[in-house]
Amino acid sequence: MGVEILRVFNNNVVLARTDAGSDVILTGRGLGFQARPGDTVDQDKVVRVFVPEDGRDPDNFGALISAIPPELLLLADQALAASDAGSGRRASSTTVVGLADHISFALERLRQGIEIEYPLRAEVAHLYPRSSRPPAASSSSSTPGSTCPSPRRRPSRSPCTWSTRGSPPVTCRRPTV
User: Fold this and answer.
1) With contact defined as beta carbons under 8 Å apart, do 48 and 100 qualify?
2) What angle do CA 75, 78, 80 make, to 5 degrees?
3) Which domain holds residue 140?
4) Which of 2, 44, 143, 165 is most exposed by smallest CB count within 10 Å?
5) Distance from C-alpha of 13 to C-alpha of 26, rounded to nearest angstrom
6) Model's pTM, two decimal places?
7) Where are the beta strands (DSSP E) in the chain?
8) Strand, helix or coil for residue 18
9) Nearest CA to 73 among 53, 95, 88?
C-alpha cells in the first residue's frame, strides 16, 4: 500500500502513517503540494523522516518542523552528525529539531539586532577552550569573511560577529540584496 498522508502542514512537510502503523513527519521539496489526507506519499520526494519520540504529539512536532526552514534542519543534522561521528550513535529527531529551532531563533535575533548577554561566557571559555572557539577557528569549512546563512526574510545589512574572551572577533559578511 505505501505510506498514507494524514495531514499536510505545507508544501514540504506532511504527517504520515507507515505500513507498520507509526506516525512520522516527512520532509521534501513539494511533498505536500496538492496532496490531501488519504493520498499515498511519493517516496521519491521524501528527503528526511522524523519520528516523534518520548511520547510527543506528532501533530505538534510536525507543526514545529514546518515552521523551521529546511536548510536549518539540514545544518542541525549535519552539525550533530559531525559531533557524534566518533561515538557511533545518532542524534534523535527531537534533538535535531530542537537544535534547528534554536538556530532559527538565534538568526531571527541577529536579524533584529537583539543581543543576549551570557554571564558565564568567560567561565565556559576557560573550562572548555576547544568548544568555545569561534566557528571559523574550529571548522575547516568556515573561514573569516565567509557568508553567513542567508535569512528567509529580508536580510539585515549588519555583519554577524562572534568572539570569545581573549580572542579577536571574527566577522562575516552578509549577502547584499
Assistant:
1) no
2) 105
3) 134-177
4) 44
5) 6
6) 0.64
7) 4-10, 13-17, 23-27, 48-50, 160-162, 170-172
8) coil
9) 95
48 and 22 together in one domain? yes
Answer whether residue 117 is part of any domain. no
Give me the mean pLDDT over the 26-32 stretch: 92
On whether residue 62 sits in a domain, the answer given is: no
The C-alpha angle 25, 26, 31, rounded to 5 degrees, equals 135
Q: Distance of CA 94 to CAs 33, 66, 152, 171, Å? A: 25, 14, 23, 31
Query: How many folded domains does the chain comprise?
Result: 3
**pLDDT tens per residue, range 80-98:** 988 887 787 888 888 999 9
Smallest CA-to-CA distance from 71 within 43, 107, 42 is with 107
At residue 136 the predicted structure's pLDDT band, cuts being 50, 70 and 90, is low
Radius of gyration (Cα) for the chain, nearest Å?
A: 19
Rounded-to-integer distance, Cα 111 and Cα 173, Å: 13
| Contact by Cβ (8 Å): 91, 84 | yes
Is residue 142 classed as helix, strand or coil in its secondary structure? coil
148 belongs to a structural domain? yes
